[in-house]
Design a protein that fits this description.
heterodimer; A: alpha+beta; OB fold (Dihydrolipoamide Acetyltransferase, E2P); six-stranded antiparallel β-sheet; four-stranded antiparallel β-sheet; 25% helix; B: alpha+beta; Gyrase A, domain 2; Elongation Factor Tu (Ef-tu), domain 3; 3 domains; six-stranded mixed β-sheet; six-stranded antiparallel beta barrel; 12 helices; 30% strand
């Protein structure tokens, strides 16, 4: 996922970038620790997950990602039948505070999109790994999955990323 | 702005770091170290404030509540904001009113003592240098608050004109209130409480009762735009009944050594209803109220007429001019501006600043300057500039987001009705 711009953020207005300080908030640190990372999934460093089952891989954003984004108010998804490439954007998620690009963790053909998200974008917050899935892809290079992180690695990655800010 | 996520902008630092680790590290530490802290900094951190750099200050963008919850709570209960990054300034001397009138569009002379108004500092071309709330404390004392991000240029501008004014014998001097902190307490206006619960719950907004516990002065006699100097929680404060949310409320300039105690007392007296609120919700609230954010919705090249602030140009000023850029502004008043600031509601993703606005045939007609999802209305709201003639409420338009056109319609502002406390 990639941050594109602030809402009509005051920070944006003044052309000032934001950065958060480490250890500022117990509440935030706790919520990070409580973010769920599921076994059996693969994770990209841009905070998308992929679940490969049989011929199809399901893709969404992680609990950690939705927690940082805040309430999702709009989801933009690709057309069924289109293609996605590893590391390239395929859609966008809008929260109250920001617009974020969603990158595909793997390459392939989009065989299904979660149409429920157009009516109920909040599913991304309430159920990031189940009802909030975004697209299903027929992978074109299954070996790409090996370049992704496992659950333990991703948990560590999130901790390190949070700690560095 | 693209790069790998993280919250509200951590990303930006990180993205730079990925591109050039060493240089970015230097910049990061330099910027962190250079950031100014308000006296409430530790208080914010202790309350879960997520601190971000803003206009050279480290300020809370949000606390534990989400921006959505925080925004809604302000209108249902109340919010306390630390706005000490903004710059309070007093102009004193027997000629301070004629001096200020050279720089702003307001009829300062016509303000009753103890009354304030929103105004605009203009440049020679009639463009806005900044917007500001100014108060005539007395005929020889003006108190004003300017935007944090504009502080340096505003002060330089005022100083330059003050030197010239004084060299011609004018009596004016200034005092920058760096010894004070500024808190904004905003609270649900009572009309809203009536409509929410169909009950005449509290005659008068709740902001006053909360603050009323902390002062002997009768706040029910202090109406929107009015200013008093009074003791609040034992400290001598400048109190203005104003705000940036559309709700009722106060801005309280308090001696910095008393600011934390005052913030604690307000939160305590509200019984938990007034919650600390950060810049994120403040931006949603002001957008819902249709209020301009300088730097987004108003810039050096925007005139007050284009920005829809014609009401802020005093009648006498329209007749007499006498402020910087008056020729341009008075001509626009006569002929009408070529572009105008309007509100929009829209389908699809929320428009953001710089989203293109097209007419129904696909012709470019303007640009969005602020936009987002309204936490209170649960729909997209935005403001931007369009060509005159296409500015009337109900005019259909297309708003481009990531290359796709979505339906939008010009909508009257404020999007959420304002609840200012005015004499009935």
């Amino acid at each position: 996922m990639a941050l594109r711009m602030w809402a009509s953020s005051t920070a944006n207005a003044l052309k000032i970038s934001c950065s958060s300080k480490p250890n500022v908030s117990l509440a935030f640190s706790l919520s990070r620790c409580f973010s769920t990372v599921l076994d059996g999934l693969k994770y990209a460093n841009s905070h998308e997950w992929v679940k490969h089952e049989g011929p199809v891989a399901t893709i969404g954003i992680t609990d950690h990602a939705q927690d940082h984004l805040g309430e999702v108010v709009f989801v933009e998804l690709p057309e069924q039948g289109g293609s996605v490439s590893q590391g390239k954007g395929f859609g966008a998620v809008e929260s109250v505070k920001a617009t974020s690009d969603i990158n595909s963790p793997i390459s392939g053909e989009v065989v299904e999109v979660n149409s429920k998200l157009s009516e109920t974008p909040g599913l991304i917050n309430s159920s990031p790994y189940e009802d909030g899935w975004m697209i299903k892809v027929k992978p074109s290079s299954p070996s790409e999955l090996e370049s992704l992180m496992g659950p333990k690695e991703y948990t560590k990655f999130c901790e390190e990323e949070d700690a560095s800010h | 702005m693209r790069g790998s996520l993280w919250h509200l902008g951590q990303s930006i630092t990180r993205r730079v770091a990925q591109a050039d680790k060493k240089a970015a590290a230097r910049r990061f530490f330099a910027s962190e170290a250079d950031l100014k802290k308000t006296v409430l900094y530790d208080f914010h951190v202790a309350h879960g404030g997520k601190m971000v750099p803003f206009a050279g200050w480290s300020m809370p963008i949000q606390y534990k509540d989400s921006i959505m919850d925080s925004t809604v709570n302000c209108r249902q209960n109340g919010s306390l904001f630390d706005v000490s990054h903004m710059c309070g300034l007093s102009l004193k001397g027997k000629d301070c009113v004629p001096f200020l009138e050279k720089l702003v569009i307001a009829d300062v002379a016509g303000l009753a003592p103890g009354m304030g108004t929103l105004t605009v500092f203009t440049n020679e071309k009639g463009g806005a240098i900044d917007d500001s709330v100014i108060t005539k404390v007395k005929d020889d004392h003006i108190y004003l608050v300017v935007n944090a991000g504009c502080r340096d240029k505003d002060l330089a501008h005022i100083e330059e004109h003050m030197k010239a004014f004084k060299s011609k014998g004018g009596d004016v001097s200034w005092h920058i209130h760096d010894e004070r902190s500024l808190l904004a307490l905003q609270f649900a206006g009572f009309e809203r409480m009536n409509c929410l619960w169909q009950l005449n719950l509290v005659r008068g907004p709740l902001a006053a009762p909360v603050l009323q516990h902390l002062t002997k002065e009768d706040l029910s006699k202090l109406y929107f735009g009015e200013f008093r100097i009074m003791y609040i929680n034992g400290a001598l404060c400048f109190l203005t009944r104003t705000g940036y949310t559309g709700e009722d409320g106060f801005e309280i300039s308090v001696p910095s050594e008393n600011a934390v105690d005052l913030a604690k007392a307000i939160l305590e007296k509200s019984g938990g209803k007034v919650r600390l609120t950060g810049l994120g919700a403040r931006d949603s609230l002001r957008l819902e109220a249709g209020l301009c954010l300088y730097g987004n919705d108003m810039e050096q090249h925007t005139t007050p007429v284009e920005a829809g602030l014609t009401w802020a140009i005093g009648k006498r000023r329209r007749a007499e001019g006498g402020f910087l850029g008056a020729e341009v502004i008075l001509k626009q008043l006569e002929e009408g501006p070529s572009i105008r600031r309007v509100g929009f509601t829209s389908n699809g993703p929320p428009p953001r600043s710089h989203s293109e606005i097209q007419d129904e045939k696909g012709n470019h007609i303007g640009e969005i300057t602020s936009g987002g999802f309204s936490p209170c209305l649960k729909k997209n709201i935005a403001m931007g500039y369009v060509k005159s003639g296409l500015h009337k409420a109900g005019t259909k338009a297309k708003i481009l987001v990531r290359g796709k056109a979505y339906d939008g319609v010009v909508t009257k502002m404020p999007f959420v009705p304002t609840k200012y406390y005015k004499p009935s």
